[in-house]
């Protein structure tokens, strides 16, 4: 496994790989790997000749007062896990390499990027999409693997790939969960033991939405109310939002429509902010 | 010479060319060719195996009330001139192909894009840079050729290439002029005979700036005043701006500094809006 820090070196390496006819898969990450990340790496491994895992805690996607400084980092552990998952190249640039002085071009997603995460974290998706474009140009992938846990990120990245005509297949991998249902996240580290005990309520709330929809409930308001009710059992948490959206547009819907609805939640436990979501199949007969 | 209208077809064709080890040069244009355009095509021809000329009047870079509808178009003539200049592929999509319903991702240049053209034409450079990114992804070039006449466009595109890590060499071609100095432009077509007679004053004004700098003048205010004085001789025109900027940052400067200063003007003759500029070498001793 190779470790590359320089953007120029990454790019010329990627160009060589492509020219030799090999397929490149990229897994963009912020590091501090858990099984969610290693599942993405394994998916890229199955589908490509060369797997590039990028590790970059991207300052542009953190707002003022967010957890950029304290975001957990453990490069040695990540290195071992990336290699175990089948990574060929780790690209781990520093912030100066990615945003040199005079940087002044951003990729900006519009509709669908200003609600939910975009409302709570203004300019977050601008930072995400900008760094993804840069990483795509540096690693020249045929496919890119992202996790469904960050559903709105998947939406803005998918639309960006289409809008800007990137010749890249987006592969979306299912959320990996703890046994009690809590979605794996680097930010789970911030939870106290008491908070951790309550955290599975996020997924329970989402499963409640799924059950209601399976029973024929189509009103988003009813679904949201049921999800909020479950979340309220978490005494140490406050909900940022509970939303029912069309996953194609990321607009909130009044009624669930076939084929799919997405229910997304964000919850704060002290300094930890957790997100989760569930895709719900909606059948055409009510 | 091939003519391609479909984005998908252009992209797979470009990928095939690249995979075969050939070098692609792209010349992005809005059509209605004059010698300025054909000079760009010739430059690409000299440096590449395959020349792709794109013809697309990009609605995203025109503001409300601008000349998008009346912008001149003559595809048959362009086709002949493109072929004569050595084009292998014309890519000429329609607006629906480039901006399908649901389009919602823009590439936005910041500092340096909101003055001069960006001030007079808000969101102009957002449209330019977005379509250039799309065209780069569709034509997969090794080099891209742009004209110095649109100096601020060259600035935002060069910075975008660097900021977003495109693996593309930007080649900037000198402005082609009529015998009397008027920069060739598709918009010269809008001039009445009387306006056309006054239009060479733009270049005369820029040459005046160059002479003053050669004589040792370093104060931008003095240069601007001299340029404005020449432009005032054009009785049918009103000046939009006269600016002295650092071509590296596109910020206005108080004093000319080595190695280069750029003097840029924009002038309105009735419905025609003409721009021009001159790069001035500034020696280190005053």
What does this structure look like?
- Two copies of one chain form a homodimer.
- In chain A, helix 2 (35-47) runs parallel beside helix 3 and helix 9 (201-214) packs antiparallel against helix 10 (220-231).
- The first copy, chain A, starts with a strand and ends in a 5-residue tail after the last strand.
- Chain A is built from ten helices and eleven strands.
- By secondary structure, the first copy, chain A, is α/β, with parallel strands linked by helices.
- The first copy, chain A, has two domains: 2-173, Rossmann fold, CATH 3.40.50.620; 186-278, Pantoate--beta-alanine Ligase, Chain: A,domain 2 (2-Layer Sandwich).
- Strand 5 of chain A pairs antiparallel with strand 5 (105-109) of chain B.
Summarize the structure.
2 copies of one chain form a homodimer. With 286 residues, chain A is an alpha/beta fold. Helices cover 37% and strands 23% of the residues of chain A.
Explain the layout of strands and helices.
The structure is a homodimer.
Chain A: E1 2-4, H1 7-19, E2 24-29, H2 35-47, E3 50-55, H3 75-85, E4 89-91, H4 95-98, E5 105-109, H5 117-120, H6 124-139, E6 143-147, H7 151-163, E7 169-173, H8 193-198, H9 201-214, H10 220-231, E8 237-246, E9 251-252, E10 260-269, E11 272-281
Parallel strand pairs in A: 1-4, 2-3, 2-6, 3-4, 6-7
Antiparallel strand pairs in A: 8-9, 8-10, 10-11
Shape of chain A: globular
Order of helices and strands of chain A: EHEHEHEHEHHEHEHHHEEEE
Distance between the termini of chain A: 52 Å
Which class of secondary structure composition applies to the elements of chain A?
alpha/beta
Q: Report strand % of chain A.
A: 15-25%
Contiguous helical run count of chain A: 10
Tell me the number of structural domains of chain A.
2
The CATH architecture of the largest domain in chain A is 3-Layer(aba) Sandwich
Specify Rg of chain A, calculated over alpha carbons. Answer: 19 Å
Chain oligomer state: homodimer
For the record, what is the CATH homologous superfamily label of the largest domain in chain A?
HUPs
Biggest sheet: strand arrangement of chain A = 1-4-3-2-6-7
